Amino acid sequence: MCPGRITPGRSISALVELVDVVPTVLDYLGMPVDRPAPAARPVRSNLQPLVERRIERLRDAVFSEYRHTEEAMARTARYKLIYRTAAARTDWYKPVERPQGRGLRLCDLAADPEELHDLSPDPRHAAAVEALTTRLAEWYPRYLPRGRSCPPDLPVFDFLDRAIALP
């Protein structure tokens, strides 16, 4: 595919989101990708500059949600934070005990790439927890379903509970 533009077998460690894939493929196929995204929808980026080694980084953080378990994730190159709402259900992808209420899980991906150790209770990582929780709360208003909103004056964890649990 695209001889001379894509190096076969090359991997990229840059942070990207799934919404970036379609515009990239369409652009490589020579199809238009400049349709504006509707309001309150994901911001899409073309990955060509990464693939063709013109840039090393596109985003400094990526976000995702697991609606079935009422969890959301914010990830940087170093840290991954998973936030679980107060009403979260058991994650059936991993053999875990039923979570009890709201929770956080922070992993240092540089030191623990397998994500085995939760650093969120450690006061030495409080700044990372706060920064990623804040970024997650700032990300959510852009992706709420049309016609839905959360009161802007809610405390961060209450806001996240409401935003993640929206049907």
Question: What does this 3D model show about the protein?
Answer:
The chain is of the alpha+beta class and 167 residues long. It is built from four helices and four strands; from the N terminus they run ααββββαα. A hairpin with a 3-residue loop joins strand 2 and strand 3. Helix 3 (126-139) crosses helix 4 (156-165).
The proportion of residues in beta strands is 5-15%
Number of strands: 4
The average pLDDT score comes to: 82
Helical content stands at 10-25%
Secondary-structure-derived class: alpha+beta
Q: Radius of gyration from the CA trace?
A: 18 Å
Strand order of the largest sheet: 1-2-3-4
pLDDT < 50 stretches: none
Main beta sheet: strand number and arrangement? 4 strands, antiparallel
Principal-axis shape equals globular
Order of helices and strands: HHEEEEHH
- The number of helical runs is 4
**Straight-line distance between termini:** 40 Å
Summarize the structure.
This protein has helices at residues 21-28, 48-51, 126-139, 156-165; strands at 62-66, 71-75, 79-84, 103-108. By secondary structure, it is of the alpha+beta class.
Features:
167 residues; alpha+beta; 4 strands
Give the helices and strands, then pairings:
Blueprint: H1 21-28, H2 48-51, E1 62-66, E2 71-75, E3 79-84, E4 103-108, H3 126-139, H4 156-165
Antiparallel strand pairs: 1-2, 2-3, 3-4
Helix pairs in contact: 3-4
